[in-house]
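re: that complex we talked abt at group meeting.

here r the seqs, copy pasted straight from the sheet so there may be weird spacing, ignore it
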Amino acid sequence: MKFYKPKNLTELFQISEKIAGKKYFLAGGTDINVQIKKKMITDEPIIYINHLEELQGIRETDESIIIGSLCSYQELLNSPLIAKYLPFFRASLVNFASPLLQTMATIGGNIANGSPTADVTPLLLVLDAQIILMAKSKMRHIPLRDFFTGYKQFNLKKNEIIGGVQITKNAETGYKTFYKKVGSRKALTIAKVALAGLKNSEEYKLAVGSLNEYPRRLSKIEEYLASTNTPESVKLEELLKQEITPISDMRSDKDYRFQVCLNLLLEFIQI
Ligand SMILES: Cc1cc2nc3c(=O)[nH]c(=O)nc-3n(C[C@H](O)[C@H](O)[C@H](O)COP(=O)(O)OP(=O)(O)OC[C@H]3O[C@@H](n4cnc5c(N)ncnc54)[C@H](O)[C@@H]3O)c2cc1C
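got the structure back, here u go
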């Protein structure tokens, strides 16, 4: 296994261009080191990125907050900018993994690992976050909801890297907020079902984790809720069946996941 440590982003893209096949980036290492240990990754080159300044930090523009992909959960939780503009986002991440993991795990790694259970993704989806994709001489922003194309499949070109995410400062303003992650225990738990939601008098935004091949918005339910003052649970159940495809695995079975998601949805409607 070849291991690279580029001096900067320019060198990273030079190295990346020369690698023909699959490669991995090592950011916080909390996912990739497990995959190496389990021999799910054996020969592919690894590019260490955790020291790259261009991918670090949290900053503001007039309208947005920009979070570098290497930002750890501890940095997010300690950031005055996040506390000021995105308090719901911050509060929802307080129980991410454990304090130890929070110091290493990065937001970019959480997204790019592509797990359906990633905690940050449903939250970013309801906040209408944009993902910043960097290449050698180009940078593009796309809505996060267009980034995922399948299980661990992304709208990411061969020589691109996730540079960060952008959230507008008023993304939470004027909305009632909801986030629940259901797992086997309160601490250090992987979600069996997660539901994030925002609502105001006109609009509903809902996203789920652990219920499809990748976290996604529940567009049909959002439209239905916006169209009625008296949502019917039978109709919600029917739409939910169209929008989620829960699986049975070692954490729980598909019927349990479906019922818990419906219960969370009904709870969200009541707030
Ligand atoms: C004990 C334990 C508990 C956990 N608990 C949780 C939990 O509660 N919630 C949760 O969501 N996750 C949890 N995780 C999973 C993991 O900690 C997170 O997914 C974490 O955010 C991954 O970030 P990382 O920096 O460690 O990624 P890494 O392991 O460094 O990388 C993960 C993947 O992302 C890719 N990658 C990394 N950065 C970039 C980038 N900038 N651009 C493109 N690709 C990139 C890598 O190629 C790799 O495929 C847990 C893991 C462990 C071991």
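couple things i noticed - The domain at 1-52 is CATH 3.30.43 (Uridine Diphospho-n-acetylenolpyruvylglucosamine Reductase; domain 2). The first helix runs from residue 9 to 18.
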